């Protein structure tokens, strides 16, 4: 199939990376085609000993990961993603589903009382991912095979698995293993660093050259990873069915909002529907949301008005808001300085995209889904060193989990969660408890762990926000 490889079977591999620098024979099992698979409990024990907070970390450029197993695992999950199991595909034919050019968004309607754990921005920090997995195992949410054993429980990883850190290959393998063990309950959402060009600039390409055979790395990126990245959704919409209708959704993504009409996806009767994104008509969607031309809406600055007014845009991994957008926290960068801003205003910069203000965030979240409403956006991305200062309304400052707009905008809550310790004094992820049959609220709780302390995960006070939104009529 054009533009991709690895459709010759679940563990089919179209080329072989030849060498790894370290091997642990006790962990290896042989699959039917001779490719190594790992015994999951032993892998977790060995990796915790090597990569955990108290582990004897391997030197940079070393790995215990077998190259063939890495490629095979990535291709297996890609094939599963492209099968679109159980989901009707909107705007696509068989060929476009398998294309590396089109991006897509997904929907998942869950049972009442479901729980979702979500983290973002791992950035090759294998010790943080192992710590989060250890917590889930200790809470008996997953078992030692990485299978989710708690009923109606799901895990969402909001992108940026690789780059910046030294163990992107291990992080990606472990996330794919988690997905493979729980194909219907684990969602891997694409971030802006799930993009080959960024990988060459921010470390993942160099990491793979050091860990695997350099002769095979070009194929790894130009064939295997580019196809894997394209198989990941750029946004996931999770809702709860009540009285056979779904009104409220949480948007899980890496970046933020995009001017995209969600009505077809969110209203579709298929609970696992998928929609291919063929074009972005930002101006039309914005007029529908605001009820007027964007130039007449004073909460959008001139640069954003110009960007919105552009002609129909072909979406790509370098311009789509689901992967790139930020939110206005009351501060922004200007001339390499942090300056206060009006948090209601939406800005645009060519290098970063839209920074959505509170007013436009609320307008879009409550209109682009038609009868359905986006009650919360759970995302990552906005994690730089000045984040505690940028997020002036942070409910949980300095702890890798930040809440925006909740005080001034009861219509939508924006949560930023960062798992890596590279940009914060600790690691964090969130637990979202969906409404039960007799409850009218979602419950969100932050889980935080201090850097270097793998023994304690601190649970923040629970936050609630209204559910069961009922449109007029």
Uncertain ranges: 1-35, 388-398, 466-473
Question: Mind summarizing the main beta sheet?
Answer: 8 strands, mixed
What is the rounded Rg? 21 Å
Identify the CATH architecture: 4-Layer Sandwich
> Do you know the CATH topology?
Purple Acid Phosphatase, chain A, domain 2
- What's the rounded overall pLDDT mean? 80
Comma- or semicolon-separated keywords:
single chain; 473 residues; alpha/beta; Purple Acid Phosphatase, chain A, domain 2; 8-stranded mixed beta sheet; 7-stranded mixed beta sheet; 22% strand; disordered C terminus
Provide an overview of this structure.
This protein has one domain (1-18, 70-473): Purple Acid Phosphatase, chain A, domain 2 (4-Layer Sandwich), CATH 3.60.21.10. The protein has helices at residues 40-51, 67-82, 94-97, 126-138, 168-181, 196-202, 204-211, 214-230, 263-267, 282-290, 302-308, 321-324, 358-365, 387-390, and strands at 28-30, 36-38, 89-90, 103-110, 115-119, 153-157, 186-188, 235-240, 248-253, 274-277, 326-327, 331-334, 337-340, 347-349, 353-356, 373-379, 401-404, 413-417, 426-433, 441-450, 458-459, 463-466. The chain is built from 14 helices and 22 strands. The protein has an 8-stranded mixed sheet. Residues 1-35, 388-398 and 466-473 have low confidence and may be disordered.
């Amino acid at each position: 199939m054009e533009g991709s490889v690895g459709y010759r079977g679940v563990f089919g591999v179209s080329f072989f990376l030849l060498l790894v620098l370290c091997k642990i024979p006790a962990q290896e099992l042989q699959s039917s085609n001779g490719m190594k698979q790992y015994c999951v409990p032993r892998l977790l024990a060995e990796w915790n000993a090597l990569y955990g907070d108290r582990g004897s970390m391997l030197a940079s450029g070393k790995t215990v990961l077998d190259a063939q197993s890495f490629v095979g695992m990535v291709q297996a999950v890609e094939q599963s993603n492209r099968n679109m199991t159980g989901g009707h595909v909107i705007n696509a034919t068989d060929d476009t589903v398998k294309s590396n050019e089109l991006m897509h968004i997904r929907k998942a309607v869950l049972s009442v009382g479901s729980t979702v754990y979500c983290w973002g921005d791992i950035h090759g920090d294998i010790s943080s991912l192992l710590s989060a997995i250890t917590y889930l195992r200790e809470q008996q949410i997953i078992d030692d095979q990485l299978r989710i054993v708690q009923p109606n429980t799901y895990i969402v990883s909001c992108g940026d698995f690789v780059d910046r850190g030294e163990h992107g290959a291990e992080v990606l393998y472990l996330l794919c293993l988690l997905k493979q063990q729980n194909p219907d309950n684990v969602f891997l959402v694409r971030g802006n660093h799930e993009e080959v060009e960024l990988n060459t600039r921010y470390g993942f390409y160099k990491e793979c050259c050091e860990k695997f055979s350099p002769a095979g790395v070009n194929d790894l990126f130009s064939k295997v990873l580019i196809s894997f990245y394209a198989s990941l959704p750029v946004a996931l919409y999770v809702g709860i069915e009540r009285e056979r209708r779904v009104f409220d959704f949480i948007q899980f993504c890496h970046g933020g909002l995009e001017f995209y009409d969600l009505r077809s996806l969110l209203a579709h009767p298929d609970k696992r529907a998928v929609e291919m994104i063929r074009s972005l008509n930002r101006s039309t969607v914005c007029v529908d949301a605001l009820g007027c031309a964007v130039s007449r809406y004073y909460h959008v600055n001139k640069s954003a008005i110009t960007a919105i007014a552009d002609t129909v845009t072909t979406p790509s991994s370098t311009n789509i808001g689901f992967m790139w957008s930020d939110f206005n926290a009351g501060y922004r960068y200007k001339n390499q300085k942090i300056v206060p801003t009006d948090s209601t205003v939406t800005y645009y910069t060519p290098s970063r995209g839209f920074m959505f203000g509170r007013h436009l965030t609320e307008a879009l979240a409550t209109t682009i889904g038609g009868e359905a409403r986006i009650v919360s956006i759970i995302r990552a991305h906005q994690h730089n060193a000045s984040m505690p200062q940028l997020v002036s309304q942070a409910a949980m400052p300095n702890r890798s989990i930040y809440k925006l707009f909740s005080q001034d905008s009861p219509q939508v809550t924006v949560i930023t969660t960062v798992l890596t310790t590279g940009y914060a004094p600790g690691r964090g992820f969130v637990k979202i408890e969906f409404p039960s049959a007799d409850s009218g609220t979602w419950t969100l709780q932050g889980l935080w762990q201090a850097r270097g302390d793998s023994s304690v995960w601190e649970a923040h006070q629970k936050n609630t926000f209204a559910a069961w939104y009922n449109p007029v009529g």
